[in-house]
Amino acid sequence: MSQEPVSVIIFYGDHAASAPERLVSGACAAAARDMVDLALECPLVDRVIVATNAGAFGDELSTVDRVVVERDPPGEPFRFGKFLLHTIQQHGIQRPLYFGAGAAPLLRPESLHALCRRLSAAERTVVTNNRGSADFYGITEPAALRRIPLPDTQDNSVPYLLSRPGVGLTADVLEPAIENSLDIDTPTDLACLAVQSGLRPHLRAYLEAHLPDTSRIQVAMPLLLQERTQVTLIGRVDTQLWGKRPSDIPGPKRIFAEERSMKSFGRDAPGKAKTLVGDLYLALGPTRFFARLAEYSDVVLFDTRALFFHLGLDLSVNDRFASDLGDFDAITDPIAREFTQAANECAVPVILGGHNIVSGALWALVQEAWDRADAGLLTPNVS
């Protein structure tokens, strides 16, 4: 029986307003360009639809065979769900496979082929890497999008909405793997990607030309392989990955996992998220907090978003990203600036970031460290 072709849809929006935002946006564009090439190499993909507001990016892709560029609707605000449905209907797509621009930068050709084969053979199904917070997903009955409240801005809730009772679709969630667990959201994700050996050409060239600071990452890599290293994970920690024993991190772990469903429950706002780590930070103050943290840790991976909301901060993207980079001088908010400076001055390496640094990005970082150790390129300083 012949398999129905899959049409890959990639959305890339460029709204960067500051240097850290431009760094991440440029990486997303490069990753999207790699995804276009990867999709065109797959025999189960008939075409690639790229939706973008970026003129030069769209112009470049419009010359590529089997690529169609859709521009954002002029004169009206962009609404994600509405434009996704419009794109699918406009092109008569029966098996859409959607990727955000920074999704799955480590996806391998054979994995995309398997994903397309799975989608092509399915009926009334949404195939995704994560039902609750998806980076990519394929839909086998795209008309079902008319039966859900289409999200205006967030693309990651669509599989959840489609697989709710009464909509008619079943969620088919991929087995977790590094290649489907990491996407590009923050500068820290770029630092973790910059040390990877398996990058595709456009993203690799971009990161070589716009190299983020990887010094703390490089210091942390051998520590993560040591059996006596005390690793502290803070924030929306993926406990299914790091809460089990044994894991890829052989040493003892201290896990402070809080607010994992922060976005799903609408607590991703100043004063709504609540964390015990935040209370401890307020009780001790920045310097004493990180001094105490260093007493219990050899390396700290810190997802800061819940803490910032706990502190009542409504940070700009620039301030969040500058904090991830450790560039406290570029942070306008005084509380976030003080926090970031104290993290920089901690006696042990502290890697700040978003959810990825305690989930997919950390997984990729640990695997790269093991690969380098196996190749004799990295030697843990085991005490």
Would you kindly provide a written description of the structure presented here, covering whatever features stand out?
InterPro entries: Nucleotide-diphossugar_trans. This protein has 383 residues and is α/β, with parallel strands linked by helices. It has helices spanning 19-41, 55-61, 80-90, 109-121, 158-162, 178-181, 187-194, 201-209, 215-223, 239-242, 276-284, 286-296, 305-310, 317-325, 334-344, 360-374; strands spanning 6-12, 45-52, 67-71, 96-100, 125-128, 136-139, 170-173, 231-235, 253-257, 299-303, 350-353. The protein has 2 domains: 6-181, Spore Coat Polysaccharide Biosynthesis Protein SpsA, Chain A, CATH 3.90.550; 214-374, no CATH class. It is built from 16 helices and 11 strands. It has a 7-stranded mixed sheet. It has a 4-stranded parallel sheet with strand order 9-8-10-11, sandwiched between helices. Helix 7 (187-194) packs parallel to helix 16 and helix 11 packs across helix 12.
Layout of secondary structure:
Blueprint: E1 6-12, H1 19-41, E2 45-52, H2 55-61, E3 67-71, H3 80-90, E4 96-100, H4 109-121, E5 125-128, E6 136-139, H5 158-162, E7 170-173, H6 178-181, H7 187-194, H8 201-209, H9 215-223, E8 231-235, H10 239-242, E9 253-257, H11 276-284, H12 286-296, E10 299-303, H13 305-310, H14 317-325, H15 334-344, E11 350-353, H16 360-374
Parallel strand pairs: 1-2, 1-4, 2-3, 5-7, 8-9, 8-10, 10-11
Antiparallel strand pairs: 4-6, 5-6
